[in-house]
Amino acid sequence: MKKSFKSAMSFFSESWSELRKVKWPGRKELTSYTIVVMGTVIGVGLYFTVLDVIISHLVELVIR
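Above: the chain sequence. Below: its structure as tokens.
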């Protein structure tokens, strides 16, 4: 039990020291990254929506 507790404490201690080394993005960078991600998500969503509508129409034509 003591060994696993010691290992867990060591893990959290090392993790915390690694987090201190991270260069966190500033407000401007974070805003631009968020805009890029949201744009990509919207673009991919629209692409699959259009693809779904096209495939649905094709399947409907084949079934008739």
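Residues 5 and 20 are 23 Å apart (CA to CA).
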